[in-house]
Amino acid sequence: MGTVEISHLQKEFTKEDSVRVIALSDINLTIADDEFVSFVGPSGCGKTTLLRIIAGLDTANSGEVRVDGSLITGPGQKVGMVFQEYSLFPWRNVLKNVAFGLQMRGVSKDERYDIARKYISLVGLSQFEKSYPYELSGGMRQRVAIARALATDPDLLLMDEPFGALDAQTRNHMQCELLDIWESKKKTILFVTHSCDEAVFLSDRVIVLSPRPGRIREILNISIPRPRDRTNNEFIDLRRQILEMIEDEDGGEERIKCKSGKL
């Protein structure tokens, strides 16, 4: 199970000068079990903040999030998270990094290593279980991070721009690997990205957020059969549609200046 219900969610921050900033406003969304949903929007629209609230790493000022009907009040076993920065322990090898969450839950050494090895194999790194993060490429480190998040068997996997620091070729390869994992493990995935191409390639639905305060501007159903062809006309049209929505609110004036040669 991995259903998510977000009801009337609002998040505010108070800056040092006591100015109140509304990051998210009245977010309402239901996500089905096993669904792959991406969030896109202008920088600062609250995508990461929303993911952190769903993960229980941050709290909303009002509204609520439920996963499988349970109210999220803090980090829990139902939710796993993968960050852009890999967040691996440099002093632990691959096996011990992947087993870390299981160790924190009191799983015995033999059992947690058996589970860790299963997920290391799933991401194609069985030959590197004794390697340390500094010995791995960026794509390999991110595979370790994904394996670590999956090893605790969460119902819901949250991913905050996990491929943003990778080169284009590695990023495309990791997208395909992630889809293979998603289809085999049947997890619900919520994915934050700045890439409209990535969102269309991966997702069942794409949620477009408005500039701050972040609100749901549009929800697009992506019905293109998988595996998806990025040169397909429907794919290109959807990518353009999402990009235009973001640019209209985030950079319309800047774009006009660029076209006029004044910037």
Description:
With 263 residues, the protein is α/β, with parallel strands linked by helices. Helices cover 38% and strands 23% of the residues. It has 9 helices and 10 strands. The chain has helices at residues 47-55, 94-98, 100-104, 109-122, 138-151, 168-185, 196-202, 233-250, 252-260, and strands spanning 4-14, 20-31, 36-40, 62-67, 70-71, 79-82, 156-160, 188-192, 205-209, 216-221. The strands form 2 sheets. Strands 6-7-8-3-9-10 form a 6-stranded mixed sheet, sandwiched between helices. It has a 4-stranded antiparallel sheet with strand order 2-1-4-5, covered by helices on one side. A hairpin with a 2-residue loop joins strand 4 and strand 5. Helix 4 (109-122) crosses helix 5 (138-151) and helix 7 packs across helix 8 (233-250). The termini are far apart.
Number of strands: 10
Largest sheet descriptor = 6 strands, mixed
If strands are numbered along the chain, what order do they take across the biggest sheet?
Answer: 6-7-8-3-9-10
Q: Radius of gyration in whole Å, from Cα?
A: 19 Å
Q: How widely separated are the two ends?
A: 50 Å
Which descriptors apply to this entry?
263 residues; alpha/beta; six-stranded mixed beta sheet; four-stranded antiparallel beta sheet; 10 strands; globular; disordered C terminus
